[in-house]
Design goal:
single chain, 269 residues, mainly alpha, Glycerol uptake facilitator protein, Aquaporin-like, membrane, transmembrane helix
């Protein structure tokens, strides 16, 4: 595998290429990444919906969710949180700040489209009907909790999350084999899920899925019976209490990790 200094040199060129992608390619690859990360949420949520023990549910989710990032890496899809590493290319003067911002804005929008479309597909296909609506109720409970987070906590949890996600992307890209890339990306992402940290793209699936499921009366009734507060589950709360502060935290964490790696290893490759 590449060492950290070699990664720095390798990724500075990779980041430059990402800033030059045509709009259509960038958007399509970012929609794919949103779908893949959302699918990690679909699978982990489906498997854990019947687990009453919170620690066990987090462990199982942590074991399953990382496959989304692994497939993102292997397919070359464009993920907003991982692309914060383009800051390495900017610091190395291989890419411009404007180019990085263009990439991140387009990728963020594409990630949202992919994740929200998956959420709609799961709801309207009936995928959430598992166990007489217990899965739908669990999705709405999760979404409701995310909609009432303290913005300061959401910001900090977002920072912690993307420190690990960017570490996972770095370790994956350091691998020279498929197995090496998979193992490198797996552990840091498993840690962020088990730690309960907040990932903006994952939340682009979780909360829209809850919002769409809320529109199905029988599922809403199941959620209310399970103790979910559906009055807080709305788009405004999602934006103000979760998506905006978590996104800001993810950006800070990603840029901090990129700057740390650059400062520690520049000139050593």
């Amino acid at each position: 595998m590449l060492n950290a200094a070699q990664f720095l040199l390798e990724y500075s060129g990779t980041g430059r290429k990402k800033t030059a992608y045509p709009l259509t390619k960038l958007l399509l690859l970012s929609i794919l990444a949103g779908f893949l990360i959302g699918m990690g949420g679909v699978v982990s949520g489906t498997v854990t919906c019947a687990l009453d023990n919170a620690a066990a549910a987090r462990i199982v989710s942590g074991l399953l969710f990382p496959f989304g990032l692994i497939i993102v890496i292997l397919t070359g899809a464009e993920l907003f949180t991982g692309n914060c590493l383009i800051a390495v290319s900017v610091l190395e003067k291989k890419a411009s700040l404007a180019g990085m911002l263009r990439n991140l804005v387009i990728v963020y929008c594409g990630n949202f489209i992919g994740a929200a479309a998956l959420a709609a597909a799961c709801v309207y296909s009936g995928q959430l009907s598992l166990a007489d609506g217990a899965l739908a109720a669990a999705v709405m409970r999760t979404a409701s909790v995310k909609c009432v987070m303290n913005p300061g906590s959401a910001l900090l949890l977002g920072i912690l999350c993307n420190l690990l996600v960017c570490a996972g992307v770095m370790c994956a890209l350091c691998g020279k084999t498929i197995a090496g890339r998979a193992i490198g990306g797996y552990l840091p992402v498993a840690f962020f899920v088990m730690g309960g940290f907040e990932h903006c793209v994952a939340n682009m699936y979780y909360v829209p899925a809850g919002l769409f499921a809320k529109m199905v009366p029988e599922w809403a009734a199941c959620a209310l019976e399970s103790g979910a507060d559906l009055t807080v589950l709305n788009w405004m709360n999602f934006l103000m209490h979760n998506l905006i502060p978590v996104t800001a935290g993810n950006v800070i964490g990603g840029y901090a990790f990129a700057a740390l790696i650059w400062r520690a290893y520049r000139g050593e490759g």
